[in-house]
Amino acid sequence: MMIDIYHNMLWPKYKGAVFSEAFSRARDTGREVRFFHIAATGYGRSAYGSVDTSYHQYPYRILFDEPYERLPQWRVALRLISEVWRSRSELVILPGYHRVEFWAMLLACMVRGKRRGVFCDSTMRDQPDRPLKRYLKRFFFRRCDGIFVYGQRSAEYVIAMGADPARVIDRCQAAALPHAYSPERAAQQRVANAARADAPKFLFAGLVCRNKGIEDLLHAFVQVLARHPAATLVLAGPVLESEGAGLRELAVSLGIDGATRFMGAMDIEQLAVQYSEATCLVLPSHTEAWGLVVNEALAYGCPVVVSDCCGCIPELVHEGVTGHVFATRNADDLARTLNRAVDTFGDVETAMRNCLDVASQYTPACAGRSIMDGCVKIIEEKRP
């Protein structure tokens, strides 16, 4: 039995970690699986750093040398049709459903009679759908033998789009942590380094831009400083070039520039230090299919405050236990929630243990096992 798994880019470390575990699971159970990446990188990912292949411990092929955004869709579609058509695999896992080339793969699988699955990270709260798009998604999902989703919100979405609940496979997402990571060491660092309650430190990790809710966060931080004058806000991540000057100017105009730090892009080792020190991670995104930084924060015992559009609710964010949820785009509610987080997570050790416990259930090993077990289920099930 051969399985082909496709993904858009090699760049993400987290996919490398998850696919490595999936490959290990396949090898242990006598299954043959091949991995294909359409391109090595693309769409500005290089701003976060170059491709780190140390996380990709599995055999893979890269189909194109150019960044993804430079590839004509017709060229990608023809190549993917050719790969599917010539493959001896019984099952093909598609990278998604939102691009022409993925539809081309689906049709090639249908004509060749191959079983097929698809990765989906969308949720009902992610992007609004127009009637035509909903119809097309229903068509796509109903013609897949399995749909791999990240969690409950994503599962609800594909079922609402017409997918058979029996064909939905979840828990397929996990973060890539430093190779030397251990929960024990993370716990020690958290206890030793966590910010004091009288000088809370709030951390954002990711692309610094308006769509991530940074304007909301800056406005909310004004109210937080009124209650906690020694508080700091750390923005760890590359700043979107077209918005960077405006966000910095906003911090100055609000009078919070002295307590706000634009740190720029950080690697996962540097972020580990930030997670160990922060009172909580803040993810105020306006749209967020999952939120891998929440996985990362919990793995370092760091609680989270997230907008209610995030896909990792309810799996990772347990209200008052590992984090708090606030209303998306509501800066006043965000301010109240950040102030509440200082009190809720004042017992650093208890909050840390709760976070590490939840994080341990969403590791690359768990996600890789879920993917491979789902593949086997698709192949072994009888088609109606």
UniProtKB/TrEMBL annotation:
EC number: 2.4.1.250
Keywords: Glycosyltransferase, Transferase
Protein origin, superkingdom: Bacteria
Enzyme class: transferase
Cross-referenced Gene3D superfamilies: Glycogen Phosphorylase B (3.40.50.2000)
GO MF assignments: D-inositol-3-phosphate glycosyltransferase activity
Entry keyword Chloroplast: no
Glycosyl transferase family domain span: 189-342
PANTHER family with a match to the protein in the record: SULFOQUINOVOSYL TRANSFERASE SQD2
Protein name as it appears in the record: D-inositol-3-phosphate glycosyltransferase
Organism in which the protein naturally occurs: Cupriavidus pampae
Primary gene name: mshA_7
